[in-house]
Structure formats: structure tokens, C-alpha cells
Design goal:
Two copies of one chain form a homodimer. By secondary structure, chain A is an alpha/beta fold. In chain A, 43% of the residues lie in helices and 21% in strands.
């Protein structure tokens, strides 16, 4: 990741989407494609899944540690989701933004609502699964969850999709490449917004 | 140009920018790249420049004919610019929009202001020259205009750039390819706006 510091601040992006919508795959694609972007790593109290690395996919912490982070005001947002806590450490995000680096938060809808309230200039995107059938298939293929948990996640997915309207953009994840194209286009378009280019009007 | 008609309406785009900002070259690039987009052809009372084709670059009409079009309400907007009239025939635009085709209007700032007022959902972009020096060079290279006209166009360019703030997006035309990338990204991003994807939320 390159950094640039022409005095311009980075922009804060929020991506939400139900478990099984393909967010992790999308984020992996975006990491390959995008320069000058920082993906916030969430802290969580849930158990690591197969292949997940501490500090990379999540910061895995105990419940006690998580409560301490809340108490110290170290989290930009936090929320409970299917029995576990998830939160966004504020310090690395704010540092990146001040260095002119765009920050992407991959967070669920409750946390996203909090961030949008606190940071009205945040650009929010909701990742929609191609279909609910596709979503269910993905959840079952993941196979680490019990049937009961899969059902809970599906019910949760429907609730979350019902909140998609509060987001600025909706990304359709039929194919991950197309979804990544869309996110990339949104990031480029947001750079072109007049409010972000006023320095051109005043220069010359 | 392909057309699609899944019940979705097209979106109306407005591009403005001073003479010499490179709009024609940009539009030519976009025509090559974009599917399902209709570039509105303006009617004008000005003389054709070398290489310009009637009905393709402009619809060249007499002053009398232009006044008749105004009287009959056939123009979406019209304006006077450096002694000539320019206007957008409404019928082809509205037909394309209703067929689900995006429409791009390449119009100057007065006309753009009218369109934005009448059609608040229009997506407006202002094409900024790389610099005023670059703009002056382009105007002189064009060489069909007298020194007096070049000066008038330069003065006009500064006035128009002062109106860039009323546009939603600012495109910087340092390189035409980058400028075309930006316009393409904006068109993709606008398709992803939640308001344009509500049908996904209601379906499955």
C-alpha cells in the first residue's frame, strides 16, 4: 500500500453484507487491485475459522479484553452479532485517513449505522448476494457451522438485507469480479465529487 | 449502441466544460467505450467548424429555425454562447431515457443549470482543463477563431470554471484516457446507487 500526502484526507468507506454474501472474497479481490487503501481489521471475540490469521483477518480477543477496549473508548463502533462481539479499533483508521489513505471498514449493519451517524461523510456500500439460494449454498459449503447456526445466519441475513436501504450504494455479488469493478468505480467516482476537488477550482 | 428495457429508466448525465477543455475528444473516447448510452446532439446556429458533420456533431440550423424550435417547446434547454444559440432537442432524449438508455448532454453552464433545475436527478459533471495554459494552447491550435474570439472564449472559460461548484462531479482532463476512466466510473457508480437498485431489495 502506497501512501500519499498532498494535504487531502482519505475517505472512509463502509461495506456491509450478510454472512455468506461473499464479503471476504470481495475484500481479497479489492486488496489485490487497490492502492492507497487500508482495510480496517476488526477485533472480535469469536473463534477463528479455519485459515483465519490473527491480526490479518481479525484481531481475536477475549471477552474481557474486548470490554476493556470499549471502556477505554478505543473502538470506532462495536456490535454483537450471532453471540459474538465485533468492533473497529479507531486509532489505525484515523491515522490512515489523516495520511490521505482511504479506509474501508467491513462491518455488519448495526456497527455501520453507528459509523454513518458519527461520520456522515462515510461512503456506505451494501453487498447483496446474487440470491438467497446462493447465500444459503455458500453458508452450507463453509460447513464449520452447525445447522442451527446456519439457520440463525440465514435469518440474520434477511434482517440485514432489509437494512440495505440505509446504504448509499448496493453492490450485487453475482460474480466477485463484477462486484469488485463496482466498488472500484465507486471509489473513483467519489474522488471526482466536487467537494473532493475544490482545490482544483481554487488553484491555477 | 445496445438498448435494454427491463423496466428501468435511463439516467440523464450532463457534461459541461469550457471550450478548449477537450470535451469533444472526451466524448469521442466515451462513444467508443460505452454501450447503452445516447449522446444528445445539440442544435446550434453557429457555423460548422472544419470536419463537423450536420446531425452528428451538431444539428446546424438557422436562427429562424432555432426560434421556431423554442416557440414549439421542442428544446429541453437552450442558451446563447459567444453570439450563437445552442439547444437540446427534448424528444430523442426522453425517448432514450424511457427505453432504459442513459443519455449524456454535452452542454454549457447556463443550459446545464436549467436542466439541473428541471431534472434534479440529472447527474452533472464539469470537465476541468489540466490548466488554463493548456486550455489557451488548445484554443489557439484550433486556429479557426480570430484573436478576438479566442480572448472572448478564454474569458468565458474562466467564468464557466467559476460555476464548476454547482456540478456534482469534477473531471480533470490532464489526459483524455484518465478523464474517460473517471466518467465511466461515475456511470457505473451511479448505477450502484441504492435508489437505482431498489428492485434487488424487493425481489430475491
Amino acid at each position: 500500500m502506497k501512501t500519499m500526502n498532498n494535504g487531502e484526507k482519505g475517505r472512509l468507506y463502509v461495506i456491509s453484507g450478510p454472512s455468506g454474501a461473499g464479503k471476504s472474497t470481495l475484500v481479497a479481490q479489492l486488496l489485490k487491485r487497490l492502492d492507497n487503501v487500508y482495510f480496517s481489521v476488526s477485533a472480535t471475540t469469536r473463534e477463528p475459522r479455519r485459515g483465519e490469521r490473527d491480526g490479518k483477518d481479525y484481531i481475536f480477543v477475549s471477552r474481557d479484553k474486548f470490554m476493556e477496549m470499549i471502556d477505554k473508548g478505543e473502538l470506532l463502533e462495536y456490535a454483537e452479532y450471532v453471540g459474538n462481539y465485533y468492533g473497529t479499533p479507531a486509532a489505525p483508521c484515523d491515522e490512515m485517513l489523516s495520511r490521505g489513505v482511504d479506509v474501508i471498514l467491513d462491518i455488519e449493519t448495526q456497527g455501520a449505522a453507528k459509523v454513518m451517524k458519527m461520520r456522515p461523510d462515510a461512503i456506505s456500500m451494501f453487498l447483496f448476494p446474487g440470491s438467497f439460494a446462493q447465500l444459503e449454498e455458500r453458508l452450507r459449503l463453509r460447513s464449520t457451522d452447525s445447522e442451527e447456526k446456519i439457520r440463525a445466519r440465514l435469518a440474520q441475513a434477511r434482517i440485514e438485507c432489509g437494512r440495505a436501504e440505509m446504504y448509499k450504494y448496493i453492490i450485487i455479488n453475482d460474480r466477485v469480479e463484477t462486484a469488485a469493478d463496482e466498488v472500484e468505480a465507486i471509489i473513483t467516482a467519489e474522488k471526482c465529487r466536487t467537494v473532493n476537488r475544490l482545490h482544483y477550482l481554487n488553484g491555477d
